[in-house]
Amino acid sequence: MLIVANWKAYVDTADKAKKLFASAKRLAQSADIALAMPYPYLGLFAGNKSTVALASQDVSISTGGADTGEVTASTLASLGVSYSVVGHSERRAKGETDEMVLEKVKRLLAHNVTPIVCVGEAERDLDARYLSGIRAQLAAVFAHLSQKERLSIVVAYEPIWAIGKTAAESIQPLELEEMVLYIRKVLGDYLPGKSAQKVRVLYGGSTEPTNARALAAGSGVDGFLVGHASVDAPTFSALVKAVS
Ligand code: PGA
User: Fold this and answer.
1) Using a 6 Å cutoff on CB, does residue 228 contact ligand 1?
2) Residues of the chain predicted below pLDDT 50
3) What is the pLDDT of residues 179-188, one digit of tens each?
């Protein structure tokens, strides 16, 4: 299981970041942990000797140069960043398009940073038209990459209706199992044979200590992208222990 903490903008001082990092270091002795943090903190933990992986919450499409305020994939790679979240619904809501997501993915891959591509529907309809939206988000990335690049992507299924709620309002294990199967079926269009099974699929959207184990069991997910439950050390520890 890969557990990625998405700190969003919840962690707003370096002091809080250091405390959460110290706690994650202990957890990382027995679980695969990545911390997706605001950019400046990446510099704080670059070169640390723990097994906690560094992740960014975004990356620029810029390749560098005269581009005030942008943070490039090259910058992230130079700090030892392993993963970068792209296409998060909170970024898409601010204007990030499928085309931008693809550009970001390409920049990251060129610098050996693993993209975590977020997909997810805003709401569900009885005719299941939301499935074609998910297919389109996946196609917008996978159709434009080489076989090797496709296998380097991590997909995070994050239904918007489940984000920032409570475990009780989150997805149900059976619904998650169906979605993971669906995502792998779509990936099968781009990755022949059994190779679509190799792409890691994470779930995000109100994963908390109380529902994490049930969501992990039998759903086929390879891990979680955790928002609010990742920014309180005891809560995050309980969550990680529940699934590992
Ligand atoms: P949440 O956020 O766990 O607070 O729902 C998940 C995410 O948006 O990545």
Assistant:
1) yes
2) none
3) 999 999 999 9
* Residues with Cβ within 8 Å of residue 52, at least 6 apart in sequence: 21, 24, 25, 28, 33, 34, 35, 45
Alpha-carbon gap, residue 146 to 133, rounded angstroms:
22
Q: Dump pLDDT digits (tens) for 112-171.
A: 999 999 999 999 999 999 999 999 999 999 999 999 999 999 999 999 999 999 999 999
Atom number of ligand 1 nearest to Cα 118: 9
- Residues with a catalytic annotation lie at 88, 158
- Which two structure tokens, joined as six digits, stand for 217? 């069991």
Structural domain containing residue 88: 2-243
Considering its fold, how many domains does the chain have in total? 1
User: Can you give the CATH number for the domain in which 111 is found?
Assistant: 3.20.20.70
Q: How far apart are the first and last CA of the chain?
A: 7
Give Cβ neighbours of residue 12 (< 8 Å, ≥ 6 apart).
none
Please identify, by atom number, the ligand 1 atom nearest to the C-alpha of residue 229: 3
pTM: 0.98
Give CA separation, 186 vs 136, 227, 228, in Å: 10, 26, 29
Handedness of CA 86, 87, 93, 99 (dihedral sign): positive
